[in-house]
Amino acid sequence: MTKMGQDHWMDKAFREKLEGFEIQPNKRVWENISKHLDGERKRPPVVGYWKPMYWAILAGVVLMGLAYWYFSNKDKSQPEPMELPFRDQNTNNHTGVENLASAEPQEENRLLVVQSKPETNQERSAVVNGKSGTRENMIKSNSARYQASKVSSQAFFSEKSSKQTVQQTQKQDNPLGLDDPNSTIEELTLAEDPSQTTLLASTELLFQGGPNSYFGSQPLRDQSESKGHDSAPVKTKEQTLSAAEGCNVYKNTSSHFYIDAYYAPELASRSFSANNISDLAYAEKRSATEKAIMSYTVGLRASVVLPTGLAARTGVQFSNNTERFDYIKETQTITIERKDKDGNVIGFETIEKEIMDQSYNHYKYIDIPIILGYEKELKDFVFSVNTGLGINISTSQSGKIYQSDLKSIYNMSNQGEGNQVVYKNHAGISWIGSLGLNYKYNEKIMLMLEPSARYYLKSITDESYPLRQKYLFMGLNIGLRYKIH
Amino acid sequence: MELEMIIQGCLRGDRLSQKNLFDRFSGKMLAVCMRYSKHRMEAEDLLQDGFIKVFTNLQQYKFEGPFEQWVRRIMINNAIKNCHRKSFQNEYNAGEDLPETVGQPEAVELMAEKELLGLINELPEGYRIVFNLYAIEGYSHKEIASSLNIEESTSRSQLVKARKALQDKINKYQNTTI
Q1: Which of helix, strand or coil describes residue A138?
Q2: Do B136 and A36 touch (CB under 8 A)?
């Protein structure tokens, strides 16, 4: 290609004469190439085809697990729930506080922070136990909780900053009728040794009631409302924090009802199999000529979630799977005349040219999902695991496919009208599974993110058709969840 | 269908696209392979191996140059790998003293492509490869030497001998047809 110099007459003559010359190969050549490529394909095809899907599933599961771990441990840096000092109603003694005081008599003062709603409600109280144990103060405010948590997580803090913390608390609110805040603050002195500082966080005892609860059986929300607070907590009435499960795991005390609306882009995985060995070539032909392009599902469903976390869901969903069909529209035979330099015809050569075309096939499903699930509610998120069945109520197809003679084109829209029936009107039962991660946007609305899978257990083709055609869809449900009750 | 669409289809492993690509280029490529072979069967074997390499290495094509050139290069490299090393041995300086062939371009013009191919096929393998690479593909002797792992002088001598052999064959052809 980088040859320099004068062109030899023979080189030039041969090059010009042979340039563009074609010889049609024997059909055997393509057959051998095709067989070789089949051999190449047979080793990795299933793995190769499924590989992206495996990775997607694995990534989804890992992400969900990491998210769950992260959010359920987010505030684990806060102190572990401690034994709650509570009021003995019979004796009116603050038994827990006194026990603590007696256990460590050298302490001057203690700051006990009780946290009921870590996020939205942010009910906070500080129980201040004086030296003699006869005086208690309960301080409730958002900043107090924040500051106290901050202090507790750091474990070490100065006496000065501690005082400031409580000072801020009392300046904002004093709902329980404390003594003069200023006098309380002055007496608050936290020991420099962090081990002598006791912080309490999240305990059911306080808010679930019971004879020894500071707040009785009323949740904090009611308490705060009774004190005339406008910024009412969101969930206190129906949810409690579980001391056993950490600060951020909520437990519902009543059932909830939701409406979910979602859209899911999906990956479609299709398999063809032949009823008879003689139809294997047809299965391969269809597999090679029909390629998945795009799939999606839209759905609307209602959910009821029991206090135990068990959930039942049902609704309706529409799915559309689009595939592209590449086919030979027609074959043209081109005859080329071969002439000598005088223009005399010295022979003919025929070449067959295949004219390609495309059509888009649509497979539409309407299913009723019946799903059971389990939900775990955290601070900002709700995790769910769901599985169930989809009952197909309608399946329709449009587009073109090759017929079993491997040449003729079959129009799916015309099936049944005196033509061979290829597809069923009902795809039957499908298995549905999903992992949900719902973000609490506000009290009523959650944002849904739910990797899902749907597998039609039976072939969507008619019994009389020589091939079985089955589908697995992997998708990501993106949508909104609205809390009705 | 556009060539790019066909290539994209081949990259997805679409058999129909692969067939389409084969149909589009197999005629020209078989003619290329024929020049490097002794007979058609050998050429078709080269074509088969070459197209398998095209399909399995298609992801290396970056849509930067003419696709046909890329395919042709694969075919030629495949042919070079297939040739016998011994065909080029003991050729140092041989043929350097041969007289330059006398120009008879009109004689070549009169011959059909298949007849010219027949002349090339009859050449010894070493002559045939070098003549094809130099005269038709436009390689320099340096490139040929590098590709075939031979000396440049060997390439030159093979070319001269090839021309001489072809000249003799053309003369013989003319004598028999007149």
Answers
A1: strand
A2: no
Residues 18-47 of chain B with CB under 8 A from chain A are 18-20, 22-23, 26-28, 30-31, 34-35, 40, 44, 47
B19: nearest CB among A8, A30, A40 = A30
Residues of A with CB below 8 A from B48's CB? 29, 32-33, 36
Q: A386-431, pLDDT tens digit by residue?
A: 999 999 999 999 999 988 888 888 888 877 666 778 899 889 999 9
Q: Are residues A449 and A265 in contact, defined by beta-carbon separation less than 8 angstroms?
A: no
CB proximity B128 to A under 8 Å: no
Tokens of A155: 């474990």
**Tokens at A81, concatenated:** 């729930």
Residue A194 to residue B126: CA distance in whole angstroms: 91
pLDDT of residue A170: 45
Picking from A252, A471, A222, A208, the residue whose alpha carbon sits closest to that of residue A376 is: A252
Scored b (16 or more CB within 10 A) or e, A123-139 reads bbbbbbbbeebeebbbb
The predicted pLDDT at position A5 comes to: 52
SS3 state at A305: strand
**Does the beta-carbon distance from A351 to B28 stay under 8 Å?**
no
Per-residue pLDDT reduced to its tens digit, A87-133? 444 444 444 444 444 444 444 444 444 444 444 444 444 444 444 44
Nearest Cα neighbor of A13 from B168, B47, B170, B66 is B170
Q: Note which residues in 6-25 of chain A have CB less than 8 A from chain B.
A: 8-15, 17-18, 20-25
CA distance A197 to A175: 24
* Phi (first) and psi of residue A186, to 5 degrees: -60, -30
Q: Which helix (H) or strand (E) covers residue A181, if one does?
A: helix A181-187
- Tell which residue, A455, A358, A367, has the closest CA to residue A399: A358
- Cα separation, B58 vs A483, whole angstroms: 53
User: Which tokens hold the place of A56?
Assistant: 């997607």
SS3 A208: coil
Please provide the DSSP assignment of B138-169 as one string.
---HHHHHHHHT--HHHHHHHHHHHHHHHHHH
Distance (Å, whole) CA B124 – CA A403: 51
CB A125 within 8 A of CB A113: yes
pTM of the model: 0.43
Question: CA A76, A77, A82, A84 torsion: positive or negative?
Answer: negative
Q: What is the mean pLDDT of chain A?
A: 69
- For residue B145, the tally of other CB atoms under 10 A from its CB is 19
| Residue A364: its H or E element | strand A345-377
Which tokens go with B107? 């004689």
